[in-house]
Write a structure and sequence with these properties.
5-stranded mixed barrel, 5 strands
Length: about 120
């Protein structure tokens, strides 16, 4: 019986430690805004300019995912429908970033910001 009680106590301590570790991990993701170009994953940064719009659109139609090319990095975009609408355009993407993927909150074309 003592052995069972000792084993039960050890298991309770381990579980309490795991719960404490998870409770301490409360790092909330914060929104960021990144300026870049919505391009296709096939050609990537090569299309991150005004001349790449048609190529980016064609590649996306052929099955490539829309991605953001910004500051020498490529980010996946969670909202492909919204991203595809901005293919080949310079934009500001707002969202949370984790493991190279942006969970998109909004995408605003740079031209729209300049106009008003």
């Amino acid at each position: 019986m003592k052995r069972f009680a000792s084993m039960l106590s050890a298991v309770a301590l381990v579980l309490a430690g795991i719960t404490t570790i998870h409770a301490g991990d409360t790092t909330a993701a914060t929104s960021e805004t990144i300026k870049g170009w919505v391009v296709d994953e096939y050609c990537g940064a090569k299309n991150a300019n005004t001349n790449g719009e048609q190529c980016a659109k064609d590649c996306i139609k052929k099955g490539a995912k829309a991605v953001l090319s910004a500051d020498g990095k490529t980010y996946g975009l969670s909202n492909q429908k919204l991203a595809t609408a901005h293919a080949g355009h310079e934009v500001e993407v707002t969202g949370t970033i984790k493991d190279g993927m942006i969970t998109v909150e909004k995408i605003v074309p740079i031209e729209a910001k300049k106009q008003g």
